[in-house]
Design goal:
Layout (H helix, E strand, L loop, with lengths): L1 E3 L6 E3 L5 E9 L3 H18 L3 E6 L4 H7 L5 H10 L2 E6 L13 H8 L4 E7 L10 E7 L9 E5 L6 E5 L5 H22 L3 E6 L7 H15 L7 E6 H10 L6 E4 L1 H14 L9 E3 L4 E3 L18 H13 L3 H17 L13 H11 L1
Parallel strand pairs: 3-4, 3-5, 5-14, 7-12, 10-11, 10-12
Antiparallel strand pairs: 1-2, 6-7, 6-13, 8-9, 13-14
Bound molecules: 1,4-dihydronicotinamide adenine dinucleotide (NAI) and magnesium ion (MG).
The site of 1,4-dihydronicotinamide adenine dinucleotide has 21 residues, from loops.
InterPro entries: IsoCit/isopropylmalate_DH_CS, IsoPropMal-DH-like_dom
Family: Belongs to the isocitrate and isopropylmalate dehydrogenases family.
GO molecular function: homoisocitrate dehydrogenase activity; isocitrate dehydrogenase (NAD+) activity; magnesium ion binding; NAD binding
């Protein structure tokens, strides 16, 4: 059940319980390095807020596929569905060419659990990035080109292959993502005195699919008076990229279909120094799953230099959406302190510390 609360991100699952079961899915690559840090953070913060976390270790990913023939075992889905209120997901490594029987488990998981929104706050702390950035990307999480309805056939005229993919935009999913984006904007309005929603689309070309996305976002905004003081904007996705890099301070809450949201959030990560610091949370009706925005980072795996901050911040987002905003703020504060003090940082932020040193510094501040 989603309700509006006092937290920075307003819309979250409210529960009265002080006991939560958290699924831990490291996945592949640096997911295995950062998810244990997420667990340590929860272990340390729980007792301070009278919250008891239980953990279930779960499998998914490329290695799981190689070992078992399934990238997303049924047991993982069932455990999350039946026994967990929250989870932390690391990253999975997906091959760039088609492998029979393999399909990205995080995409499948978002579908299986109805995780309709992926909320990605991108915020600079003094000393990172070159400009102040404070925005939230609300990425639709279940459809668009990610329904993976693809086919390849031979073109009769040219004899060459043609590959097609269906982009699906539905009124239902768009309404859901527009609603949560506007609730977040409303909360930011209360906190900062102003808030803007920017709807990202390409309806000048894709007049039906992106046209529907744009139309529904606007109608959700207009249909509820409570959103009246949130400013409403629209931006075509290509010029959105331009403006995001040229004047990121103009953006507040951005709502986007799945693919644009994915691309924009990795781009926005460059504005705050590294993909290694940008968190996300997948929000569904019955479970929330924190997930760093980055992938499995094969180029740095095993070197001990993966930045754990994106995962630590994802743990904070998880707590926020579980209805524990004070605990979430606590984690955010100590992460900001670590970044601001600028001494113990991993190479992606220009430092020479290990991920473990960063994790220990943050844990010691909790
Ligand atoms: P990536 O996000 O793994 O890496 C991009 C760049 O950012 C690399 O240079 C990497 O070293 C750096 N980076 C990422 N996270 C970092 C961290 N925590 N600390 C320091 N540096 C970090 O994206 P890439 O290389 O395109 O994809 C690698 C694999 O990850 C692919 O197989 C892809 O399918 C998968 N992937 C999985 C995702 C998921 O599970 N949700 C999301 C994105 C990619
Ligand atoms: Mg991505």
């Amino acid at each position: 059940m989603l309700r509006v609360g006092r937290g920075q991100l307003s819309t979250r699952t409210y529960v009265t319980s002080k006991s939560f079961t958290i699924g831990l899915i490291p996945g592949d690559g640096i997911g295995k390095e950062v998810i244990p840090v997420g667990r340590k953070v929860l272990e340390k913060i729980g007792p301070k807020y009278g919250v008891d976390f239980k953990y279930i270790d779960l499998q998914a990913g490329w290695q799981t596929f190689l070992d078992t023939g399934k990238a997303l075992p049924d047991d993982t889905v069932e455990q999350l569905r039946n026994n967990c209120q929250g989870a932390l997901f690391g990253a999975v490594q997906s091959p760039t060419t088609k492998v029979q029987g393999y399909s990205s488990p995080i995409v499948a998981l978002r579908k299986a659990l109805g995780l309709y929104a992926n909320i990605r706050p991108v915020k600079s702390v003094d000393g990172t990035g070159d400009r102040p950035v404070d925005l939230v990307i609300a990425r639709e999480n279940t459809e668009d080109l990610y329904i993976k309805s693809e086919r390849t056939y031979i073109d009769k005229e040219t004899g060459g292959r043609v590959a097609e993919a269906i982009k699906r935009i539905s009124e239902h999913a768009t309404r859901n993502i527009a609603n949560i984006a506007l609730e977040i904007a409303l909360q930011r309005l209360k906190e900062k005195g102003h808030a803007t929603l920017t709807v990202t689309h390409k309806s000048n070309v894709l007049s039906q699919s992106d046209g529907l996305f744009r139309e529904i976002c606007k109608s959700v905004y207009q249909s509820n008076k409570k959103f009246a003081n949130v400013q409403y904007n629209e931006q075509i996705v290509d010029s959105m990229v331009y403006r995001l890099f040229k004047e990121p301070q103009c953006f507040d809450v951005i709502v986007a279909p799945n693919l644009y949201g994915d691309i924009l959030s990795d781009g926005a990560a460059a504005l705050v120094g590294s993909l290694g610091v940008v968190p996300s949370v997948n929000v569904g009706p019955n479970i929330v799953i924190g997930e760093p925005c980055h992938g499995s980072a094969p180029d740095i795996v095993g070197q001990g230099i993966a930045n754990p901050i994106a995962t630590i911040r994802s743990a904070a987002l998880l707590l926020e959406f579980l209805g524990l905003p004070e605990a979430a703020r606590h984690i955010e504060k100590v992460v900001d302190e670590n970044i601001r003090e600028n001494k113990i940082k991993t190479p992606d932020l220009g430092g020479n510390s290990t991920g473990e040193q960063v994790a220990n510094d943050i844990l010691s501040r909790i």
